[in-house]
Known about the structure:
Number of domains: 1
Strand content: 15-25%
Largest sheet: 7 strands, parallel
Distance between the termini: 14 Å
Radius of gyration: 17 Å
Shape: globular
CATH class: Alpha Beta
CATH architecture: 3-Layer(aba) Sandwich
Structural class: alpha/beta
Number of strands: 10
Order of helices and strands: EHEHEEHEHEEHEHEHE
Bound molecules: fructose -6-phosphate
CATH topology: Rossmann fold
Amino acid sequence: xxxxxxxxxxxxxxxxxxxxxxxxxxxxxxxxxxxxxxxxxxxxxxxxxxxxxxxxxxxxxxxxxxxxxxxxxxxxxxxxxxxxxxxxxxxxxxxxxxxxxxxxxxxxxxxxxxxxxxxxxxxxxxxxxxxxxxxxxxxxxxxxxxxxxxxxxxxxxxxxxxxxxxxxxxxxxxxxxxxxxxxxxxxxxxxxxxxxxxxxxxxxxxxxxxxxxxxxxxxxxxxxxxxxxxxxxxxxxxxxx
Length: 241
Ligand code: F6R
C-alpha cells in the first residue's frame, strides 16, 4: 500500500483529484468506482472545477457507486443517488446512462445486486475505485464479519454505522437499517484503489488498516492484499501510525 501523507483535507482532495484527472486524461473512457460520505466531497468539488475549466470531460466515463440505502428513492435527499446528483453528477457532463448506483427501492434487492455485478462486469470492471474508511473498518457498507469474497449484496447496517451517519438525518430512527453494497470481492477486483482518510477520529482505524492483521473483523485490512492501493491521508489521520 502506498501512503501519501498530506497536510490537511484540502490537500487530500487536491491529490485525489489529480489522480482521477490523470486517469481520465490517460484513457478517456475510465470506469470509476465512487463513494459518498463526507470524505470525497472535496474531491468532487475539485473535479467539478477541473471540468468547468475545460481540463477534463466525463463524456466517455462510466461510474459505479459503492452503495445505496434500502428503501430510499432517488429523490430522497438522504439517498446516495441524490447525494451524487447534488455533489457531482448535475455539475459535469457524465451521461445519466453511464452513472450507476444500486437501486434502493428495487422490488427484488437480491436480483438488483446480481444485476449490478453484471453491469460492472460488462463495463470491464473498475479501473479506479475511490473509497472512504468507516470507523469500524467498513469499506462500502461491508461491515465487520463480511466474508472477503462477497459480491454486491444486501447488508444489515451496524448500529455504529447508523449512529455515525445519523448526522445526515433528522434522527437515528430515520437512518435505514439495510443497504445494498458492492462486496469486498467486487472492490478487490478494481485495478486501482484510492482510499481517502481525513481527521483525528479516523486515526485508530488507519493504524489498524496499515499495521493490523488482515481479518474479516476489520474489512479494510484486506486492502493490504491488493497490489495497487494508494492511501491518501492527512496528518491527523496518520497521527497514531
Ligand atoms: C460511502 C461508503 C462508506 C464511507 C465511510 C466513511 O459510500 O461506502 O464506506 O466511505 O462510511 O464515511 P465518511 O467519509 O462520511 O467518514
